[in-house]
Amino acid sequence: MGSRLMVSMLGLLLFCTAARAAEQGVRELSPEHLQIGTAQLALGLSQDWQQPLPQVQRALIVIHGRLRNAQTYLHSVEQAATRAGQLSTTLIIAPQFLNESDAARHSLPADILRWHANDWMAGAPATSPAPLSSYAALDQILERLADGERYPALREIVVAGHSGGAQVVQRYALTTRAGKALQEHGIKLRYVIANPSSYAYFNAQRPIPTFDPASCPGFNNWKYGLQHLPAYTRGESPAQLEQAYVGRDITYLLGAKDIDPNHPALDKGCEAEAQGAFRLVRGKNYFEYLTQRHPQGLNQRLIEVPGVGHNGDRMFTSPEGQKVLFGEQPSSP
To answer: Which of 29, 45, 316, 324 yields a CA-CA distance of 20 to 30 A from 301?
Structure first.
């Protein structure tokens, strides 16, 4: 028991040290960039997408968490793709949503997109050099991938994220309109949401019986609910957003040991606490909520990863993670 406690405490210390360092500016900048108007989005790539990639059948966009360590996630998913025998036919893209502390630490060029703190998780506009939503930046990646001359064999795009990145993927899947345009190009779009701290609910219902909405006035505001939606939604109603969301191909990938109610990166605000005590139960609660509201026609599933807690690398390289990301050769939608 004592050794397990020491390992746990060491892990907590390492995480907190990394988190403090990230708040002072991310350690590693991604080497590539996507031009979006007069701005550039930092990103990492598994292959050179400046030239045609006729062998690529699947593109996998992986979103980092609050540490903004995009290259770490890129390497994890490259390892998962290698184990699954899919590396050569998969283009892995790891966008990096930098913030103002990163700009200060690295003296970023003026045209590199950056956001305030963690606002990129909720689809907020960048603070510089243009007010581009982080979700709109993802749209730009998808638009590039729809180029049939560059990617003639592309049949599937997977948008995946862990922790804070999974928060992005869940809200992006809820608000984007990109799927229909991709389908017209013969490309299927699906999402993998791994261990987020919270989810966006469609109404005021919450799974905790003792939750008192009066004690948490913002519990149903975006990003926890659909009040005060971001400009990116372009005026769509909550009902329209929900109807589109439940039809999307989404997998909730949850670590069976992500059960620490005091994890240092867990959202402990009342808005998130209304969804459950820790990430595993919050994910299960949300999926049950979806199945109750949509008992038929829900194109979604929940998969647990045995023996894994809050660890993005172990989630994506696990047998379950590999199957979710690369389980089958993509086919036409």
So the answer is: 45
